[in-house]
Amino acid sequence: MTLDFRSQLVAMLPRLRRFALGLTASRDEADDLVQAACEKALAKQDQWQPGTRLDSWLYRIVQTQRIDHLRRAKHAPVSMAAETMPDWEDTQSADRAEREDLLRHTLRALEQLPEDQRLVMLLVVVEGHSYREVAEQLGIPQGTVMSRLARARLRVQELLAPEQYTRKTP
Q: How far, in Å, CA of 2 to CA of 45, rounded?
């Protein structure tokens, strides 16, 4: 195992955890997923080709580990409890409560997306990868990435419509 590979893997941990958290909506499951992916990456290090993107290879391992876990567990999609929401402090804004509410609703909307759409949304919107990079990482055509992302964005927009989460008075 090369020192360079290990240091790159360690540097990727926050991004892998954020990606896994988006997939699982559970900090514990995300941590377990990242740990399993790291174990697999270390065991299969010889399959990674230096000069290629390590992040793409690692995201693919995380995704594959997630799929394997879902197949084994055969359980329904998970939801994130309100108390497990990240404590992101917005000290610059007077409307902090409103932003936290929007974040909470956005995360819930992401949870409701089909796995393939959520995965593309996380890679493009959260991680900032290009359509081409996501297509290569997932082994799907670039047009499929674009259509999944478009459907995911529309669905999230529908779910975040004000009438969906504001209290209606009779």
A: 9
What's the token pair of residue 131?
């359509």
Residue 48 DSSP class: S
Q: Using the structure block, give the residue that is written with the tokens 């993107």.
A: 53
Whether this prediction's pTM lies above 0.85 is answered by no
d(CA 82, CA 59): 27
Amino acid identity of residue 106, one-letter, is T
How many whole angstroms separate alpha carbon 77 and alpha carbon 24? Answer: 8
Q: ∠53-57-58 over CA atoms, to 5°?
A: 115
Task: Give the Cβ contact number of residue 4 at 10 Å.
Answer: 10
Could you give the 3-state DSSP secondary structure of residue 11? helix
For 112-150, how does the pLDDT look when each residue is reduced to its tens digit (9 = 90+)?
889 899 989 888 888 888 999 899 888 899 999 999 999
116 CB neighbour count, 10 Å cutoff: 15
